[in-house]
Amino acid sequence: MVRIGVDLGGTKIEIIAFDEHGRELLRRRVPTPTVEYAETLAAVAELVVFAERELGAMGTVGIGTPGAISRSTGLLKNANSTCLNGRPVMQDLEALLGREVRIANDANCFALSEATDGAARDAQVVFGVILGTGVGGGIVVARRLLVGANAIAGEWGHNPLPLPGEPDMPLPNCYCGRQGCIETYLSGPGMAARHAADTGAVLSPPEIVARAAAGEEGAQRTMQRYADRLARSLANVINILDPDVIVLGGGMSNIDRLYADVPRFWQRYAFSDRVDTKLVRQHHGDSSGVRGAAWLW
Question: Fewer CB near the terminus (10 Å): N or C of the chain?
Answer without folding.
Answer: N
